[in-house]
Amino acid sequence: MADKPTYEELEQRVQNLEQGKIECKRVENELRISKKLLRDVMDMVPAFICAKDLDGRFILANKKLTDFYGTTVEEITGVLHADICENKKELQGMLAADREVINGEKPKHIPEETMKNPDGSITVLETYKIPFTAYDDPAVLIVSTDITERKRAEEERGKLEAQFQGAQKLESVGRLAGGVAHDLNNLLAPILGYGEMLLQDFDRNDTRKASVEQIVEAGMRARDIVRQLLAFSRKQALEFKAVDLNKVLTRFEKLLRRTIREDIAIRFMPASQVPFIRGDIGQLEQVIMNLAVNAQDAMPEGGTLTFDTFLTELGEDYAATHEGVKSGAYVMLGVSDTGYGMGAETCEHLFEPFFSTKGEHGTGLGLATVYGIVKQHGGNIWVYSEIGKGTTFKIYLPVSEETGAPSESDSMGPPDLQGSETILIVEDNAQVRNLSHAILKRQGYKVLVAENGKEALTVLNQHEGPLHLILTDVVMPKMDGKALFDQISGYNPDVKVLYMSGYTNDVIAHRGVLDEGMNFIQKPCSVQALAAKVREVLDG
Ligand code: ADP
Ligand code: MG
User: Fold this and answer.
1) How do residues 263-274 score in pLDDT, each as one tens digit?
2) Which domain holds residue 4?
3) Which CATH number is 138's domain given?
4) pTM
5) What is the reported pLDDT for 408?
6) At 209, is the secondary structure helix, strand, or coil?
Protein backbone atom coordinates (compact mmCIF):
# COMPACT_ATOMS: atom_id res chain seq x y z
CA MET A 1 0.00 0.00 0.00
CA ALA A 2 1.36 3.34 -0.94
CA ASP A 3 1.64 6.06 1.56
CA LYS A 4 -1.14 8.52 1.68
CA PRO A 5 -0.20 11.54 -0.39
CA THR A 6 0.51 14.60 1.49
CA TYR A 7 -1.62 17.63 1.18
CA GLU A 8 1.04 19.32 -0.90
CA GLU A 9 1.22 16.35 -3.22
CA LEU A 10 -2.51 16.39 -3.68
CA GLU A 11 -2.45 20.05 -4.40
CA GLN A 12 0.27 19.46 -6.96
CA ARG A 13 -1.80 16.74 -8.66
CA VAL A 14 -4.87 18.93 -8.83
CA GLN A 15 -2.75 21.65 -10.32
CA ASN A 16 -1.35 19.23 -12.92
CA LEU A 17 -4.80 18.09 -13.78
CA GLU A 18 -5.94 21.66 -14.23
CA GLN A 19 -2.89 22.27 -16.38
CA GLY A 20 -3.68 19.18 -18.50
CA LYS A 21 -7.23 20.34 -18.98
CA ILE A 22 -6.06 23.71 -20.18
CA GLU A 23 -3.54 22.07 -22.50
CA CYS A 24 -6.22 19.77 -23.82
CA LYS A 25 -8.52 22.69 -24.47
CA ARG A 26 -5.73 24.51 -26.28
CA VAL A 27 -4.95 21.54 -28.50
CA GLU A 28 -8.62 20.98 -29.14
CA ASN A 29 -8.93 24.59 -30.11
CA GLU A 30 -5.96 24.41 -32.42
CA LEU A 31 -7.31 21.29 -34.01
CA ARG A 32 -10.68 22.95 -34.52
CA ILE A 33 -8.99 25.95 -36.14
CA SER A 34 -6.87 23.68 -38.35
CA LYS A 35 -9.87 21.70 -39.45
CA LYS A 36 -11.87 24.83 -40.13
CA LEU A 37 -8.93 26.38 -41.98
CA LEU A 38 -8.46 23.25 -44.07
CA ARG A 39 -12.17 23.07 -44.86
CA ASP A 40 -12.34 26.77 -45.82
CA VAL A 41 -9.24 26.59 -47.97
CA MET A 42 -10.48 23.41 -49.66
CA ASP A 43 -13.83 24.99 -50.41
CA MET A 44 -12.36 28.30 -51.48
CA VAL A 45 -9.79 26.98 -53.95
CA PRO A 46 -11.28 26.92 -57.47
CA ALA A 47 -10.44 23.26 -57.92
CA PHE A 48 -11.92 19.84 -57.31
CA ILE A 49 -10.25 18.34 -54.23
CA CYS A 50 -10.80 14.90 -52.75
CA ALA A 51 -9.15 11.86 -51.20
CA LYS A 52 -10.19 8.32 -52.10
CA ASP A 53 -9.19 4.85 -51.00
CA LEU A 54 -8.17 1.96 -53.23
CA ASP A 55 -11.81 1.00 -53.85
CA GLY A 56 -12.64 4.50 -54.98
CA ARG A 57 -14.46 5.39 -51.75
CA PHE A 58 -14.45 9.09 -50.86
CA ILE A 59 -12.57 9.87 -47.66
CA LEU A 60 -12.98 13.59 -48.05
CA ALA A 61 -14.09 16.04 -50.72
CA ASN A 62 -14.50 19.77 -51.10
CA LYS A 63 -17.67 21.66 -51.84
CA LYS A 64 -16.91 22.22 -55.53
CA LEU A 65 -16.76 18.46 -56.01
CA THR A 66 -19.85 17.64 -53.96
CA ASP A 67 -21.76 20.43 -55.74
CA PHE A 68 -20.78 18.89 -59.04
CA TYR A 69 -22.24 15.53 -58.00
CA GLY A 70 -25.24 17.19 -56.34
CA THR A 71 -24.44 15.94 -52.85
CA THR A 72 -22.92 17.38 -49.65
CA VAL A 73 -19.56 17.24 -47.93
CA GLU A 74 -21.12 15.28 -45.07
CA GLU A 75 -22.95 12.81 -47.29
CA ILE A 76 -20.12 11.98 -49.66
CA THR A 77 -17.78 10.40 -47.08
CA GLY A 78 -17.71 6.63 -47.54
CA VAL A 79 -19.58 6.78 -50.86
CA LEU A 80 -18.09 4.92 -53.86
CA HIS A 81 -17.14 7.19 -56.75
CA ALA A 82 -18.76 4.62 -59.02
CA ASP A 83 -22.10 5.15 -57.28
CA ILE A 84 -22.37 8.83 -58.09
CA CYS A 85 -20.53 9.16 -61.40
CA GLU A 86 -22.77 8.55 -64.39
CA ASN A 87 -20.13 8.66 -67.05
CA LYS A 88 -18.67 5.16 -66.65
CA LYS A 89 -16.00 5.53 -69.30
CA GLU A 90 -14.65 8.69 -67.73
CA LEU A 91 -14.76 7.04 -64.31
CA GLN A 92 -12.79 3.98 -65.38
CA GLY A 93 -9.92 6.16 -66.53
CA MET A 94 -9.91 8.15 -63.29
CA LEU A 95 -10.01 5.09 -61.01
CA ALA A 96 -7.24 3.40 -62.97
CA ALA A 97 -5.03 6.45 -62.45
CA ASP A 98 -5.96 6.52 -58.74
CA ARG A 99 -4.88 2.88 -58.30
CA GLU A 100 -1.68 3.54 -60.18
CA VAL A 101 -0.80 6.30 -57.73
CA ILE A 102 -1.74 4.28 -54.62
CA ASN A 103 -0.03 1.06 -55.68
CA GLY A 104 2.99 2.71 -57.22
CA GLU A 105 3.27 5.18 -54.34
CA LYS A 106 4.24 7.80 -56.87
CA PRO A 107 2.55 11.11 -57.71
CA LYS A 108 0.96 11.63 -61.13
CA HIS A 109 0.34 14.74 -63.19
CA ILE A 110 -2.41 14.61 -65.83
CA PRO A 111 -2.00 17.78 -67.91
CA GLU A 112 -5.39 17.45 -69.54
CA GLU A 113 -8.45 15.30 -68.89
CA THR A 114 -12.04 15.96 -69.83
CA MET A 115 -15.18 15.65 -67.77
CA LYS A 116 -18.71 15.79 -69.09
CA ASN A 117 -21.05 18.10 -67.18
CA PRO A 118 -24.69 17.23 -66.45
CA ASP A 119 -25.74 19.79 -69.11
CA GLY A 120 -23.59 18.00 -71.69
CA SER A 121 -20.83 20.61 -71.87
CA ILE A 122 -17.25 19.53 -71.37
CA THR A 123 -14.92 20.69 -68.63
CA VAL A 124 -11.19 20.35 -69.20
CA LEU A 125 -9.16 19.58 -66.08
CA GLU A 126 -5.52 19.62 -65.14
CA THR A 127 -5.06 17.06 -62.36
CA TYR A 128 -2.45 16.27 -59.73
CA LYS A 129 -2.66 13.01 -57.75
CA ILE A 130 -0.38 12.11 -54.83
CA PRO A 131 -0.26 9.06 -52.55
CA PHE A 132 -1.84 9.98 -49.22
CA THR A 133 -0.64 7.94 -46.25
CA ALA A 134 -2.07 9.65 -43.18
CA TYR A 135 -4.99 7.22 -42.91
CA ASP A 136 -4.82 3.58 -41.89
CA ASP A 137 -5.58 2.48 -45.43
CA PRO A 138 -3.58 3.76 -48.42
CA ALA A 139 -5.32 6.57 -50.27
CA VAL A 140 -4.86 9.11 -53.03
CA LEU A 141 -5.23 12.87 -52.71
CA ILE A 142 -6.50 14.56 -55.86
CA VAL A 143 -6.53 18.20 -56.93
CA SER A 144 -8.06 19.05 -60.32
CA THR A 145 -8.11 22.60 -61.73
CA ASP A 146 -10.65 23.68 -64.31
CA ILE A 147 -8.65 24.86 -67.34
CA THR A 148 -11.58 24.98 -69.78
CA GLU A 149 -11.40 28.76 -70.13
CA ARG A 150 -7.63 28.76 -70.58
CA LYS A 151 -7.90 26.05 -73.25
CA ARG A 152 -10.62 28.02 -75.05
CA ALA A 153 -8.54 31.20 -74.99
CA GLU A 154 -5.52 29.29 -76.28
CA GLU A 155 -7.55 27.81 -79.09
CA GLU A 156 -8.98 31.21 -79.93
CA ARG A 157 -5.52 32.69 -80.07
CA GLY A 158 -4.36 29.86 -82.31
CA LYS A 159 -7.31 30.36 -84.62
CA LEU A 160 -6.76 34.09 -84.79
CA GLU A 161 -3.13 33.54 -85.57
CA ALA A 162 -4.03 31.09 -88.35
CA GLN A 163 -6.53 33.59 -89.72
CA PHE A 164 -3.93 36.30 -89.60
CA GLN A 165 -1.40 34.16 -91.42
CA GLY A 166 -4.01 33.16 -93.99
CA ALA A 167 -4.89 36.79 -94.62
CA GLN A 168 -1.22 37.73 -94.81
CA LYS A 169 -0.60 35.00 -97.34
CA LEU A 170 -3.54 36.03 -99.51
CA GLU A 171 -2.36 39.61 -99.24
CA SER A 172 1.07 38.79 -100.62
CA VAL A 173 -0.25 36.38 -103.23
CA GLY A 174 -2.66 39.17 -104.19
CA ARG A 175 0.18 41.62 -104.62
CA LEU A 176 2.03 39.16 -106.82
CA ALA A 177 -1.04 38.28 -108.87
CA GLY A 178 -1.99 41.94 -109.20
CA GLY A 179 1.46 42.87 -110.41
CA VAL A 180 1.59 40.04 -112.93
CA ALA A 181 -1.94 40.77 -114.11
CA HIS A 182 -1.20 44.44 -114.55
CA ASP A 183 1.89 43.83 -116.63
CA LEU A 184 0.22 41.05 -118.61
CA ASN A 185 -2.65 43.35 -119.31
CA ASN A 186 -0.28 45.81 -120.90
CA LEU A 187 1.40 43.09 -122.93
CA LEU A 188 -1.94 41.77 -124.12
CA ALA A 189 -2.92 45.15 -125.52
CA PRO A 190 -0.45 45.05 -128.45
CA ILE A 191 -0.91 41.30 -128.96
CA LEU A 192 -4.64 41.70 -129.35
CA GLY A 193 -4.48 45.09 -131.04
CA TYR A 194 -2.05 44.11 -133.78
CA GLY A 195 -3.72 40.74 -134.10
CA GLU A 196 -7.04 42.39 -134.76
CA MET A 197 -5.43 44.75 -137.27
CA LEU A 198 -3.80 41.87 -139.11
CA LEU A 199 -7.17 40.13 -139.30
CA GLN A 200 -8.61 43.15 -140.98
CA ASP A 201 -5.75 43.36 -143.46
CA PHE A 202 -6.01 39.76 -144.55
CA ASP A 203 -7.91 38.86 -147.61
CA ARG A 204 -11.03 36.85 -146.78
CA ASN A 205 -9.50 33.72 -148.31
CA ASP A 206 -6.04 34.15 -146.88
CA THR A 207 -5.00 30.87 -145.31
CA ARG A 208 -2.99 32.67 -142.61
CA LYS A 209 -6.15 34.24 -141.26
CA ALA A 210 -7.11 31.17 -139.21
CA SER A 211 -3.72 31.22 -137.47
CA VAL A 212 -4.06 34.84 -136.44
CA GLU A 213 -7.60 34.19 -135.30
CA GLN A 214 -6.21 31.55 -132.97
CA ILE A 215 -3.67 34.04 -131.62
CA VAL A 216 -6.33 36.65 -130.98
CA GLU A 217 -8.64 34.15 -129.39
CA ALA A 218 -5.94 32.87 -127.06
CA GLY A 219 -5.20 36.49 -126.21
CA MET A 220 -8.84 37.04 -125.31
CA ARG A 221 -8.83 34.05 -123.00
CA ALA A 222 -5.68 35.32 -121.36
CA ARG A 223 -7.45 38.64 -120.95
CA ASP A 224 -10.29 36.88 -119.14
CA ILE A 225 -7.87 35.29 -116.68
CA VAL A 226 -6.09 38.59 -116.19
CA ARG A 227 -9.38 40.28 -115.40
CA GLN A 228 -10.15 37.71 -112.70
CA LEU A 229 -6.71 38.13 -111.23
CA LEU A 230 -7.26 41.87 -111.12
CA ALA A 231 -10.50 41.21 -109.25
CA PHE A 232 -8.64 39.00 -106.78
CA SER A 233 -5.99 41.62 -106.15
CA ARG A 234 -8.71 44.26 -105.68
CA LYS A 235 -7.47 46.31 -108.58
CA GLN A 236 -10.82 46.64 -110.30
CA ALA A 237 -12.62 49.93 -110.70
CA LEU A 238 -15.89 49.35 -108.87
CA GLU A 239 -19.09 51.29 -109.24
CA PHE A 240 -20.28 51.70 -105.69
CA LYS A 241 -23.82 52.67 -104.90
CA ALA A 242 -26.37 52.04 -102.17
CA VAL A 243 -27.58 48.48 -102.68
CA ASP A 244 -30.35 46.43 -101.14
CA LEU A 245 -28.83 42.95 -101.04
CA ASN A 246 -32.25 41.33 -100.79
CA LYS A 247 -33.26 42.96 -104.04
CA VAL A 248 -30.09 41.90 -105.79
CA LEU A 249 -30.82 38.37 -104.65
CA THR A 250 -34.50 38.20 -105.55
CA ARG A 251 -33.90 39.72 -108.94
CA PHE A 252 -31.14 37.23 -109.56
CA GLU A 253 -33.36 34.33 -108.53
CA LYS A 254 -34.87 33.47 -111.90
CA LEU A 255 -31.58 33.86 -113.61
CA LEU A 256 -29.93 31.47 -111.22
CA ARG A 257 -32.78 29.04 -111.66
CA ARG A 258 -32.07 28.97 -115.37
CA THR A 259 -28.34 28.62 -114.96
CA ILE A 260 -28.21 26.00 -112.20
CA ARG A 261 -29.08 22.35 -112.96
CA GLU A 262 -32.69 21.22 -112.49
CA ASP A 263 -31.85 18.59 -109.88
CA ILE A 264 -30.75 21.31 -107.49
CA ALA A 265 -33.45 23.03 -105.43
CA ILE A 266 -32.79 26.71 -104.79
CA ARG A 267 -34.12 28.25 -101.58
CA PHE A 268 -34.14 31.97 -100.91
CA MET A 269 -34.50 32.99 -97.29
CA PRO A 270 -33.93 36.73 -97.17
CA ALA A 271 -34.43 38.64 -93.91
CA SER A 272 -37.64 40.65 -94.06
CA GLN A 273 -35.63 43.83 -94.45
CA VAL A 274 -31.96 44.68 -94.58
CA PRO A 275 -30.36 48.11 -94.68
CA PHE A 276 -28.36 49.24 -97.69
CA ILE A 277 -24.79 48.32 -98.20
CA ARG A 278 -22.36 50.08 -100.49
CA GLY A 279 -21.73 47.78 -103.38
CA ASP A 280 -21.18 47.19 -107.06
CA ILE A 281 -24.19 45.21 -108.24
CA GLY A 282 -22.43 43.60 -111.18
CA GLN A 283 -19.65 42.39 -108.89
CA LEU A 284 -22.07 41.17 -106.23
CA GLU A 285 -23.88 39.18 -108.89
CA GLN A 286 -20.53 37.75 -109.87
CA VAL A 287 -19.99 36.66 -106.27
CA ILE A 288 -23.41 35.00 -106.10
CA MET A 289 -22.89 33.28 -109.45
CA ASN A 290 -19.42 31.96 -108.59
CA LEU A 291 -20.60 30.55 -105.27
CA ALA A 292 -23.68 29.04 -106.91
CA VAL A 293 -21.65 27.35 -109.63
CA ASN A 294 -19.24 25.91 -107.05
CA ALA A 295 -22.20 24.64 -105.03
CA GLN A 296 -23.55 23.03 -108.18
CA ASP A 297 -20.21 21.32 -108.80
CA ALA A 298 -20.27 20.03 -105.22
CA MET A 299 -23.70 18.42 -105.71
CA PRO A 300 -23.29 16.08 -108.68
CA GLU A 301 -26.28 14.04 -107.49
CA GLY A 302 -28.44 17.10 -106.84
CA GLY A 303 -29.28 18.79 -103.58
CA THR A 304 -30.30 22.12 -102.13
CA LEU A 305 -28.69 25.50 -102.58
CA THR A 306 -29.77 28.05 -99.98
CA PHE A 307 -29.32 31.80 -99.94
CA ASP A 308 -30.11 33.78 -96.83
CA THR A 309 -29.51 37.28 -95.56
CA PHE A 310 -29.73 38.93 -92.19
CA LEU A 311 -28.69 42.05 -90.41
CA THR A 312 -26.14 41.56 -87.69
CA GLU A 313 -24.08 43.60 -85.32
CA LEU A 314 -20.50 42.42 -85.01
CA GLY A 315 -19.31 43.51 -81.59
CA GLU A 316 -15.86 44.34 -80.25
CA ASP A 317 -15.57 40.77 -78.98
CA TYR A 318 -16.19 39.36 -82.43
CA ALA A 319 -13.79 41.83 -84.01
CA ALA A 320 -11.12 40.87 -81.48
CA THR A 321 -11.40 37.19 -82.34
CA HIS A 322 -11.73 37.52 -86.11
CA GLU A 323 -8.81 38.71 -88.16
CA GLY A 324 -9.42 41.85 -90.19
CA VAL A 325 -12.93 42.50 -88.87
CA LYS A 326 -14.03 45.93 -87.69
CA SER A 327 -16.97 46.03 -85.29
CA GLY A 328 -20.21 47.48 -86.61
CA ALA A 329 -23.42 46.63 -88.45
CA TYR A 330 -23.20 44.15 -91.31
CA VAL A 331 -25.53 42.48 -93.75
CA MET A 332 -24.72 38.78 -93.90
CA LEU A 333 -25.21 36.85 -97.11
CA GLY A 334 -25.10 33.09 -96.62
CA VAL A 335 -24.71 30.59 -99.45
CA SER A 336 -25.09 26.96 -98.38
CA ASP A 337 -25.14 23.69 -100.24
CA THR A 338 -25.77 20.08 -99.32
CA GLY A 339 -22.83 18.90 -101.40
CA TYR A 340 -19.76 16.82 -100.67
CA GLY A 341 -18.15 19.53 -98.57
CA MET A 342 -14.41 19.78 -98.04
CA GLY A 343 -11.71 19.00 -95.54
CA ALA A 344 -9.48 21.34 -93.61
CA GLU A 345 -6.73 21.12 -96.20
CA THR A 346 -9.00 22.43 -98.97
CA CYS A 347 -10.53 25.09 -96.71
CA GLU A 348 -7.08 26.42 -96.01
CA HIS A 349 -6.22 27.11 -99.66
CA LEU A 350 -9.69 27.87 -100.97
CA PHE A 351 -9.26 31.53 -101.83
CA GLU A 352 -5.84 31.26 -103.38
CA PRO A 353 -5.83 31.89 -107.11
CA PHE A 354 -5.40 28.73 -109.20
CA PHE A 355 -6.22 26.46 -106.28
CA SER A 356 -8.66 23.89 -107.61
CA THR A 357 -9.50 20.29 -106.85
CA LYS A 358 -11.31 19.92 -110.14
CA GLY A 359 -8.30 19.13 -112.32
CA GLU A 360 -8.88 20.05 -115.93
CA HIS A 361 -12.34 21.37 -115.21
CA GLY A 362 -11.36 23.98 -112.68
CA THR A 363 -9.66 27.33 -113.07
CA GLY A 364 -9.25 27.97 -109.36
CA LEU A 365 -10.18 31.58 -109.97
CA GLY A 366 -13.81 31.56 -108.84
CA LEU A 367 -13.24 31.97 -105.13
CA ALA A 368 -10.16 34.13 -105.57
CA THR A 369 -12.39 36.55 -107.47
CA VAL A 370 -15.08 36.31 -104.79
CA TYR A 371 -12.50 37.00 -102.09
CA GLY A 372 -11.15 40.06 -103.89
CA ILE A 373 -14.61 41.47 -104.52
CA VAL A 374 -15.73 40.96 -100.91
CA LYS A 375 -12.56 42.55 -99.56
CA GLN A 376 -12.87 45.45 -101.96
CA HIS A 377 -16.34 45.99 -100.51
CA GLY A 378 -14.81 46.24 -97.03
CA GLY A 379 -16.35 42.90 -96.16
CA ASN A 380 -15.28 39.48 -94.93
CA ILE A 381 -15.89 35.95 -96.05
CA TRP A 382 -15.81 32.77 -93.98
CA VAL A 383 -16.30 29.18 -94.95
CA TYR A 384 -17.78 26.40 -92.86
CA SER A 385 -17.49 22.92 -94.27
CA GLU A 386 -16.89 19.31 -93.45
CA ILE A 387 -16.45 16.38 -95.78
CA GLY A 388 -19.86 14.95 -96.59
CA LYS A 389 -21.67 17.65 -94.66
CA GLY A 390 -22.13 20.40 -97.25
CA THR A 391 -20.64 23.87 -97.24
CA THR A 392 -21.69 27.31 -96.08
CA PHE A 393 -20.06 30.53 -97.18
CA LYS A 394 -20.86 33.57 -95.07
CA ILE A 395 -20.18 37.00 -96.47
CA TYR A 396 -20.40 40.05 -94.23
CA LEU A 397 -20.80 43.40 -95.97
CA PRO A 398 -20.73 46.60 -93.91
CA VAL A 399 -24.01 48.51 -93.69
CA SER A 400 -23.86 51.75 -95.63
CA GLU A 401 -24.23 55.10 -93.93
CA GLU A 402 -26.52 56.13 -96.76
CA THR A 403 -30.18 56.03 -95.89
CA GLY A 404 -31.56 57.79 -98.95
CA ALA A 405 -33.35 56.07 -101.82
CA PRO A 406 -31.21 53.37 -103.31
CA SER A 407 -29.79 54.22 -106.67
CA GLU A 408 -29.87 50.60 -107.77
CA SER A 409 -33.58 50.63 -108.58
CA ASP A 410 -32.64 50.69 -112.23
CA SER A 411 -30.11 47.94 -111.89
CA MET A 412 -31.83 44.91 -113.27
CA GLY A 413 -34.68 44.01 -115.49
CA PRO A 414 -37.03 46.93 -114.99
CA PRO A 415 -40.20 46.58 -117.09
CA ASP A 416 -39.28 49.25 -119.65
CA LEU A 417 -36.27 47.18 -120.71
CA GLN A 418 -38.41 44.24 -121.72
CA GLY A 419 -39.42 43.17 -125.19
CA SER A 420 -40.84 40.34 -127.24
CA GLU A 421 -38.55 40.44 -130.27
CA THR A 422 -36.50 37.48 -131.49
CA ILE A 423 -32.79 37.51 -130.71
CA LEU A 424 -30.08 35.14 -131.92
CA ILE A 425 -27.16 34.67 -129.52
CA VAL A 426 -23.91 33.44 -131.04
CA GLU A 427 -21.26 32.76 -128.42
CA ASP A 428 -18.85 29.89 -127.95
CA ASN A 429 -18.36 30.22 -124.20
CA ALA A 430 -21.15 28.15 -122.66
CA GLN A 431 -21.34 30.17 -119.47
CA VAL A 432 -21.64 33.52 -121.23
CA ARG A 433 -24.09 31.98 -123.69
CA ASN A 434 -26.34 30.52 -121.01
CA LEU A 435 -26.25 33.66 -118.94
CA SER A 436 -27.15 35.93 -121.87
CA HIS A 437 -29.86 33.49 -122.83
CA ALA A 438 -31.32 33.56 -119.32
CA ILE A 439 -31.16 37.35 -119.06
CA LEU A 440 -32.88 37.97 -122.36
CA LYS A 441 -35.51 35.30 -121.87
CA ARG A 442 -36.36 36.86 -118.55
CA GLN A 443 -36.84 40.18 -120.29
CA GLY A 444 -39.47 38.54 -122.45
CA TYR A 445 -37.51 38.01 -125.67
CA LYS A 446 -37.66 34.98 -127.90
CA VAL A 447 -34.14 33.60 -127.90
CA LEU A 448 -32.23 31.41 -130.36
CA VAL A 449 -28.72 30.23 -129.51
CA ALA A 450 -25.73 28.98 -131.41
CA GLU A 451 -22.15 28.21 -130.51
CA ASN A 452 -20.58 29.56 -133.68
CA GLY A 453 -21.32 31.19 -137.02
CA LYS A 454 -21.93 27.93 -138.83
CA GLU A 455 -24.39 26.69 -136.24
CA ALA A 456 -26.07 30.11 -136.26
CA LEU A 457 -26.84 29.73 -139.95
CA THR A 458 -28.27 26.25 -139.39
CA VAL A 459 -30.42 27.48 -136.50
CA LEU A 460 -31.74 30.33 -138.62
CA ASN A 461 -32.52 27.97 -141.47
CA GLN A 462 -34.79 25.99 -139.20
CA HIS A 463 -36.33 29.06 -137.60
CA GLU A 464 -39.65 30.25 -138.91
CA GLY A 465 -40.60 33.81 -138.17
CA PRO A 466 -38.71 37.05 -137.92
CA LEU A 467 -35.26 37.73 -136.50
CA HIS A 468 -34.71 41.17 -135.01
CA LEU A 469 -31.29 41.12 -133.44
CA ILE A 470 -28.06 39.14 -133.51
CA LEU A 471 -26.06 39.24 -130.29
CA THR A 472 -22.69 37.86 -131.28
CA ASP A 473 -19.17 37.43 -130.09
CA VAL A 474 -16.78 39.55 -132.16
CA VAL A 475 -13.97 37.10 -132.59
CA MET A 476 -14.85 33.50 -133.32
CA PRO A 477 -12.97 30.78 -135.10
CA LYS A 478 -13.86 30.26 -138.79
CA MET A 479 -16.45 33.01 -139.11
CA ASP A 480 -16.13 36.16 -137.01
CA GLY A 481 -19.11 38.14 -135.79
CA LYS A 482 -18.97 40.73 -138.50
CA ALA A 483 -18.81 38.18 -141.30
CA LEU A 484 -21.78 36.39 -139.80
CA PHE A 485 -23.77 39.59 -139.60
CA ASP A 486 -22.87 40.53 -143.17
CA GLN A 487 -24.08 37.20 -144.39
CA ILE A 488 -27.39 37.27 -142.49
CA SER A 489 -28.17 40.90 -143.25
CA GLY A 490 -27.69 40.00 -146.90
CA TYR A 491 -31.10 38.38 -146.94
CA ASN A 492 -32.54 40.04 -143.84
CA PRO A 493 -31.68 43.73 -144.25
CA ASP A 494 -33.65 44.85 -141.16
CA VAL A 495 -31.76 42.69 -138.70
CA LYS A 496 -29.70 44.56 -136.13
CA VAL A 497 -26.49 43.48 -134.48
CA LEU A 498 -24.94 43.89 -131.07
CA TYR A 499 -21.35 42.73 -130.67
CA MET A 500 -20.01 41.27 -127.45
CA SER A 501 -16.37 41.06 -126.64
CA GLY A 502 -14.07 40.52 -123.73
CA TYR A 503 -11.93 43.15 -125.27
CA THR A 504 -12.30 46.78 -124.27
CA ASN A 505 -14.49 49.12 -126.17
CA ASP A 506 -11.93 51.62 -127.34
CA VAL A 507 -9.30 49.27 -128.55
CA ILE A 508 -11.63 47.26 -130.74
CA ALA A 509 -13.23 50.32 -132.23
CA HIS A 510 -9.95 52.04 -132.91
CA ARG A 511 -8.22 49.04 -134.35
CA GLY A 512 -10.95 48.84 -136.91
CA VAL A 513 -12.46 45.48 -136.06
CA LEU A 514 -15.72 47.24 -135.59
CA ASP A 515 -16.56 50.43 -137.35
CA GLU A 516 -17.04 53.44 -135.15
CA GLY A 517 -20.61 53.81 -134.00
CA MET A 518 -21.29 50.11 -134.08
CA ASN A 519 -23.20 48.55 -131.22
CA PHE A 520 -20.88 46.94 -128.80
CA ILE A 521 -21.04 45.56 -125.29
CA GLN A 522 -18.19 44.33 -123.15
CA LYS A 523 -18.11 40.87 -121.61
CA PRO A 524 -18.81 39.86 -118.96
CA CYS A 525 -21.69 42.31 -118.74
CA SER A 526 -24.13 42.86 -115.95
CA VAL A 527 -27.77 41.93 -116.29
CA GLN A 528 -28.76 45.58 -116.37
CA ALA A 529 -26.15 46.51 -118.96
CA LEU A 530 -27.17 43.76 -121.37
CA ALA A 531 -30.93 44.36 -121.00
CA ALA A 532 -30.48 48.09 -121.51
CA LYS A 533 -28.13 47.76 -124.45
CA VAL A 534 -30.34 45.24 -126.23
CA ARG A 535 -33.37 47.50 -125.83
CA GLU A 536 -31.36 50.47 -127.03
CA VAL A 537 -30.19 48.69 -130.17
CA LEU A 538 -33.66 47.36 -130.96
CA ASP A 539 -35.21 50.79 -130.54
CA GLY A 540 -32.38 52.74 -132.12
P1 ADP B 1 -12.73 25.97 -109.28
O2 ADP B 1 -14.23 25.93 -109.08
O3 ADP B 1 -12.36 26.37 -110.66
O4 ADP B 1 -12.06 24.71 -108.85
P5 ADP B 1 -12.81 27.93 -107.18
O6 ADP B 1 -11.87 29.01 -106.78
O7 ADP B 1 -14.19 28.36 -107.55
O8 ADP B 1 -12.14 27.13 -108.36
O9 ADP B 1 -12.89 26.87 -106.01
C10 ADP B 1 -11.69 26.32 -105.49
C11 ADP B 1 -11.90 24.97 -104.86
O12 ADP B 1 -12.67 25.12 -103.68
C13 ADP B 1 -12.69 23.99 -105.69
O14 ADP B 1 -11.85 23.30 -106.60
C15 ADP B 1 -13.26 23.06 -104.63
O16 ADP B 1 -12.32 22.12 -104.22
C17 ADP B 1 -13.47 23.98 -103.45
N18 ADP B 1 -14.87 24.41 -103.32
C19 ADP B 1 -15.37 25.63 -103.61
N20 ADP B 1 -16.69 25.70 -103.35
C21 ADP B 1 -17.03 24.50 -102.85
C22 ADP B 1 -18.27 23.94 -102.37
N23 ADP B 1 -19.40 24.65 -102.36
N24 ADP B 1 -18.24 22.65 -101.92
C25 ADP B 1 -17.10 21.94 -101.93
N26 ADP B 1 -15.92 22.40 -102.36
C27 ADP B 1 -15.87 23.67 -102.83
MG1 MG C 1 -15.45 27.67 -109.19
Assistant:
1) 999 999 998 888
2) 1-33
3) 3.30.450.20
4) 0.58
5) 43
6) helix
